[in-house]
Amino acid sequence: MKLRFFRFLFFSIALVAANGQGTELPNFRLKPPTKPPAGSSSVIRDVCANYWALAPASNQQRQLLVLPAQSPTAWIAPNISGIGPDNWQTISTDDDGFVWLKSAGRTLRFDPRKIEAGAIEAAMPPPKAETRWQAVTRMPVSNHDLTAAVLNGRFYVAGGLTADWGFPARSHPFDELWELNPTNWSWRVAAKFHRARIYCATAAFDNKVWVLGGDVIEPDGKRYAVTITELCDPRTGNITTGPESTIARPMPLALTVKNRLYVVGNPRDQYDQPGKMESIGKGETRWRQEPDGPAGMGPLAGTSLDDKLYVLVPKKGLAIFDTKVRQWEMISPPSIPRSCQMAAYRNEIWLMGGQDITDKTQTLIFNPTTRTWRNGPPLPRPNSWGAAATVGGKLVVTGGAALRSENDRVYIYNDRTFVLRD
Predict the structure, then answer these.
(1) What are the boundaries of each domain within the chain?
(2) How high is the pLDDT of residue 30?
(3) Cα dihedral 93/363/404/185 (nearest 10)
(4) How far apart (Å, rounded) are the C-alpha atoms in residues 194 and 371?
(5) Are 282 and 292 in contact (CB under 8 A)?
(6) Which of 347, 421, 338, 422 is nearest to 382 (CA)?
(7) Is 310 helix (H, G, I), strand (E, B) or coil?
(8) Percent of the chain scoring above 70 in pLDDT
(9) Cα 194 to chain center, whole Å?
């Protein structure tokens, strides 16, 4: 039932409007897998993949119902303290994970991940200023620990993990390859893995999407790093086994330069050692050892441009590997974010968001020709551990997570897909 629900979600949603403004999240014209009671209104989906609706109640009032993501066969009363039948008019969700309920005289807010806290009366925040980034769609489920691959004009992410799934919300790892079509900004499931995979590397190579390493989660909940390589053909959904890497990397990074695929990263508990890298060419069946990179290769971000790999090493800097001469060099950005979103765009290297920096919306742009840095358009909100790439000439950022605020220390897992405005 869970798989049927996720596939239905991906194939049935259609984007309405998303201008990147305001507190309220872009919504979808959608058909929940189970219809709400007759006469229901204001059907929405929250960041935890639950559906909410206002159903008819006695005395011409309306009651709040939820269709939980983990059990999408029956609408139920959520039993949230402070919410009962009333003259409710609308429901909405926001980018801080809250659900808002409005009547003519009241506005209530609750967190679907903290239902024990109940609902409180609150004023909706004012609309946010327009930014250079446009929210073009929402991932059917929030997700993070992702990297991106672009193949044949499509954008792909594999596996991942959210802590915001279902009602009540819980952690949920993913076992699928998701595809974004930039012509209509729609997502679909392109393939299904044998097991859930977290922090796996994702790269396009030899007309396939390669998914390498990372952690897998067994049915009993055991999580461990693997050397597994899976090759996905998005056209058919078929998955074949590729050459296993020589190292079980829990947080690998895979990048393609021309006819070679490179994977970099260290085993767990060896991040203080020189960074290990290997590569494979088209038609080859064994990985070739490459020169070691700098130490500190734990959670990495990276991209490739022309003949070079650009790997952001936490607390170290931007490591650049020249594939022609097979040598590393290290340069220092103005600041060094950890787990940022990183992509090549218009012949420059973009570092967006991340941890370990003061402004977690910052964008840094490196020009390889002039070897200079400048600031770029900040993200619309803090974000880390998401995926970024250029597809169809558009710079895309999706998924990830960030603290809602420094005060409550609650992480919000992102389900939005942003595109840089021209």
Answers:
(1) 2-121, 133-420
(2) 57
(3) 20
(4) 44
(5) no
(6) 338
(7) strand
(8) 93
(9) 21
In the 8-state DSSP scheme, what is residue 118? -
Residue 16, judged by CB atoms within 10 A of its CB (0-12, 13-18, 19+), counts as: exposed
Read out DSSP for 50-80?
A: -EEEEEE-GGG-EEEEEE-TT-TT--B----
| Residue 219 φ/ψ, nearest 5 degrees | -55, -30
- The pLDDT score that the predictor gives to residue 397 is 99
* Contact call for residues 203 and 261 (beta carbons, < 8 A): yes
Q: Can you give 139-155 as a three-state secondary structure string?
A: CCCCCECCCEEEECCEE
- CA 8 from chain centre, in angstroms, equals 20
Q: How far apart are CA 365 and CA 345, in angstroms?
A: 9
Q: Give the tens place of pLDDT for each residue, 324-361.
A: 999 999 999 999 999 999 999 999 999 999 999 999 99
Question: What is the DSSP-derived secondary structure letter of residue 129?
Answer: P
Q: What is the pLDDT of residues 23-46, one digit of tens each?
A: 454 444 457 899 999 999 989 999
Q: How far apart are the C-alpha atoms of 418 and 105, rounded to whole Å?
A: 34
Domain 133-420 in this protein, CATH class: mainly beta
HSE at residue 20, side-chain half, CA atoms within 13 A, is 16
With residue 9 as reference, give the H or E element that holds it.
Answer: helix 2-12
Task: Give the pTM.
Answer: 0.91
Taking residue 129's Cβ as centre, other Cβ atoms within 10 Å add up to: 9
Q: How far apart are CA 42 and CA 89, in angstroms?
A: 8
pLDDT value of position 126: 84
**Other CB atoms closer than 10 Å to residue 284's CB: what's the count?**
14
For residue 220, is pLDDT > 90? Answer: no
Token pair of 41 as six digits = 């209104």
Structure tokens at 393: 């000439």
For residue 199, give every residue at least 6 positions away whose Cβ sits within 8 Å of its Cβ, in sequence order, or none.
Answer: 145, 159, 161, 214, 215, 250, 251, 252
- Provide the strand spans (E) within 94-147: 99-103, 107-110, 120-121, 133-138
- Dig out the tokens for 36 from the structure: 């709400």
At 374-407, the pLDDT tens digits run 999 999 999 999 999 999 999 999 999 999 887 8
Number of other CB atoms surrounding residue 181 within 10 Å: 15
Q: Give the Cβ contact number of residue 152 at 10 Å.
A: 9
